[in-house]
UniProtKB/TrEMBL annotation:
InterPro entries: Acyl_transf_WS/DGAT, O-acyltransferase_WSD1-like, O-acyltransferase_WSD1_C, O-acyltransferase_WSD1_N. It comes from Streptomyces ficellus. It holds the Pfam family WS_DGAT_cat. It catalyses: an acyl-CoA + a 1,2-diacyl-sn-glycerol = a triacyl-sn-glycerol + CoA. Pathway: Lipid metabolism; Glycerolipid metabolism; triacylglycerol biosynthesis. It is an enzyme of class 2 (transferase). This is Diacylglycerol O-acyltransferase. Residues 303-448 form the O-acyltransferase WSD1 C-terminal domain. GO terms for cellular component: plasma membrane. GO terms for biological process: biological process involved in interaction with host; glycerol metabolic process; response to hypoxia; response to nitric oxide; triglyceride biosynthetic process. Belongs to the long-chain O-acyltransferase family. Residues 6-258 form the O-acyltransferase WSD1-like N-terminal domain. The keyword Lipid metabolism applies.
Length: 456
């Protein structure tokens, strides 16, 4: 049986999960029916199953290993049956049977509440259909131990016609699970010791930054500090990518700076609409950043490879351009420090810890996220080519990030086909009005475009 050790960060995600805090990410893809594409739900379901089964990574499950102590490994599931992972659900008619997207999003929220079965390869796909001949959606759930955002895109893209029809690359040989040598040869001792000292130095630097950035005082809006209920509500919104670029051309910075500022303004308006006072201290966002090599190279190993920045969201500033300037300056400082430094580089710190520390420390550390940040905001790139499934064109793909313990909201954005498809994952009890926040995001971009058009 082929197997490979879980990378340290993957192991941390595996042990962070609880019944009320599932650590899976996902995406809700919506397709429009193509008149010239044959096949109904049964044929689409069979196509999904066939293509998912052809992705080697989706046949892997997690098992414990003897060495290293506390470690775990990915191993091929000998009893793999794709039918246990790919399902079809027909949406029942609601008050507005024509609004397929709204009904699919509500159902996806219920499905995202459910943890993945840990004895199986940790993923699921759901085909969601409505009226015959109408649009349909595919919900993909992947455990965060299996993939980060970029790796999830690479895995999930295997269902699309354009990816499945391409020549598959050569398979990478997995790392065998072998005992570590505690008696290295004399020529390796000096190099190993020097490497460990350097790693320890990096870990101490990040650890000190984490301690300095930790907040012991309660802050933020009540919705973002509410206790977790284990429920999930989803909302989606699509932004015009050209409008984002118009703002960037006038104000400078990056498109991601604009998107972060748009979310900041939406958060401000949403808080005020709720009748809540603005927080005494601006809420803080965790902004993940990939550490994979440029050009799509997977980087070191197949597991999660990312760090993150911490960014104060200036909701207290009533000026949209002032908020954008503050966001841009904050991100510039983060980039100058680099993704492997600072309190946001928790993933880098996790890479330096032994497996036993993750096994026993992750449940205790799970609640610490609340001390560092209030909301996760991530940008997940998608393939630039037009995608389809069985000839049916992909019209929207809304990414969904996991909620850390103590968190009530996570926002993920993906540019595709001239739009920025945004998925909001919220604790259903803490943020039952996440739809209003999604609407505020759209309104904020509209206002920012008008302001920059006048100033430009």
């Amino acid at each position: 049986m082929s197997s490979e050790l879980l990378a340290p960060l993957d192991l941390a995600f595996w042990h962070l999960e609880t019944a009320d805090h599932p650590m899976h990410l996902g995406a809700l893809a919506r397709f429009d029916p193509a008149p010239d594409a044959p096949g109904g739900p049964a044929e689409i379901l069979a196509l999904l199953a066939e293509r998912a089964a052809a992705v080697p990574r989706l046949r892997m499950r997690v098992r414990d290993v003897l060495l290293p102590v506390g470690g775990a490994a990915w191993s091929t599931d000998k009893a793999f049956d794709v039918r246990r992972h790919v399902h079809h659900l027909r949406l029942t008619d609601g008050a507005d049977p024509g609004d397929f997207t709204a009904r699919a999003t509500r159902l996806a929220g219920e499905l995202m509440e459910r943890p993945l079965e840990r004895g199986l390869p940790p993923w699921e796909m759901y085909l969601l259909t409505g009226e015959p001949g109408g649009p349909f959606a595919v919900l993909v759930k992947l455990h965060h131990a299996l993939a980060d955002g970029m790796r999830a895109v690479a895995i999930g893209a295997g269902i699309f016609d354009q990816i499945a029809g391409a020549r598959p690359p050569g398979r990478r040989r997995p790392r065998p699970v072998t005992p570590r040598s505690w008696l290295p040869g004399p020529l390796n001792v000096a190099g190993a010791a020097r490497g460990r000292i350097e790693e320890l130095g990096r870990a101490l630097g990040v650890g000190a930054s984490v301690v300095r950035a930790s907040r012991l005082d309660p802050r933020g809006t009540p919705a973002l500090t509410a206790g977790s209920s284990g429920t999930r509500r989803l909302a989606t919104v699509d932004l015009d990518l050209e409008e984002v670029r118009r703002v960037r051309r006038v104000t400078g910075g990056t498109a991601n700076d604009v998107l972060l500022a748009v979310f900041t303004g939406a958060l401000r308006h949403w808080m005020l609409e709720r009748g809540e006072p603005l927080p005494a201290a601006d809420p803080r966002a965790l902004v993940p950043v990939s550490r994979r090599r440029p050009g799509g190279a997977p980087g070191p190993g197949p597991g999660n490879t990312f760090s993150a920045y911490l960014l104060d969201l200036p909701v207290s500033d009533p000026d949209p351009l002032g908020r954008l300037d503050a966001v841009r300056r904050g991100m510039d400082r983060n980039k100058a420090a680099g993704p492997s430094r600072g309190a946001g580089a928790l993933a880098v710190l996790a890479d330096q810890l032994p497996p036993l520390a993750h096994r026993f420390g992750a449940p205790l550390a799970g609640g610490a996220a609340r001390m560092l940040f209030d909301v996760l905001v991530t940008n997940v790139p998608l393939p630039r080519s037009t995608l389809s499934l069985g000839g049916h064109p992909l019209r929207a793909l809304h990414p969904m990030a996991p909620l850390a313990q103590g968190q009530a909201l996570a926002v993920a954005m993906s540019p595709y086909d001239g739009r920025v498809h945004t998925g909001l994952v919220a604790d259903g009890k803490a943020v039952p009005d996440v739809d209003r926040l999604a609407a505020a995001i759209s309104d904020e971009l509209t206002d920012l475009v008008k302001i920059t058009d006048r100033s430009g």
